[in-house]
Design a protein that fits this description.
It contains no helices and 11 strands. With 114 residues, it is mainly beta. The chain is globular and about 40 Å long.
């Protein structure tokens, strides 16, 4: 079992930055592939980014490539999402996940005003 708790969301103007954090507890964090997803109102939950267990491999949705950076600190059992050059269309609830096991956090709201 893994518990995931996201933080760092908020309201930001277009062009601004936010850094999301996800604290994990339970199962050996350093063995897990971690991911971020987001869900805008009335839309499906979409993949944003993922990172391998050792942090050496990352993957991004085309919509965030070049603006978002996923990273992790296995010593702190944490994964991060640095979001730069934010756009109004980035507005969503952002979720941290271990999709292989079906573990999800409760989400954190990100709102980008124009």
């Amino acid at each position: 079992q893994v518990q995931l708790v996201e933080s760092g969301g908020g309201l930001v103007q277009a062009g601004g930055s936010l850094r999301l954090s996800c604290a994990a507890s339970g199962r050996a964090f350093s063995s897990l592939v971690m991911a971020w997803f987001r869900q805008a109102p009335g839309k499906d939950r979409d993949f944003v980014a993922s990172i391998s267990s050792d942090g050496l491999s990352t993957s991004y949705a085309d919509s965030v490539k070049g603006r978002f950076t996923i990273s992790r600190d296995n010593a702190k059992n944490a994964v991060y999402l640095q979001m730069n050059s934010l756009k109004p269309e980035d507005t969503a609830v952002y979720y941290c996940a271990v999709t292989f096991y079906g573990y999800w956090g409760q989400g954190t709201q990100v709102t980008v005003s124009s």
